[in-house]
């Protein structure tokens, strides 16, 4: 069994590393805030990540249920339409699309 001083040192080192790793992004972000590249990433990355997520999810659903592809298309269309016409509220559009998907999947 390790001695007490060894365990205290291990916990202290782990704590210091954790604090430094949590503070590092804030220290690195300060000089980058005025960068045009970082601002462009902040503008385009969320949409790009959502696009990748949607493509992966839709392709997986098309492969899993080829006969019910219209359900996925209908739910995606409802999600987009609710998002565009209901004030771009992401949570509302996600709930509407998910509800339509579950409803159609259970009905057909």
UniProtKB/TrEMBL annotation:
Pfam families per record: AzlD
Chain segments annotated as transmembrane: 6-29, 41-63, 69-86, 91-107
Keyword GTP-binding applies: no
Protein keywords: Membrane, Transmembrane, Transmembrane helix
InterPro entries associated with the record: Brnchd-chn_aa_trnsp_AzlD
Name this polypeptide is given: AzlD domain-containing protein
Organism: Leucobacter weissii
């Amino acid at each position: 069994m390790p001695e007490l001083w060894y365990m205290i040192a291990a916990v202290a080192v782990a704590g210091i590393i954790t604090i430094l790793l949590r503070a590092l992004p804030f220290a690195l972000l300060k000089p980058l805030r005025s960068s045009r590249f970082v601002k462009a990433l902040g503008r385009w990355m969320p949409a790009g990540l959502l696009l990748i997520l949607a493509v992966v999810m839709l392709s997986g659903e098309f492969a899993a249920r080829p006969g019910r592809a219209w359900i996925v298309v209908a739910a995606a269309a409802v999600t987009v339409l609710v998002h565009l016409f209901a004030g771009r509220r992401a949570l509302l559009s996600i709930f509407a699309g998910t509800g339509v998907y579950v409803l159609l999947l259970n009905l057909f």
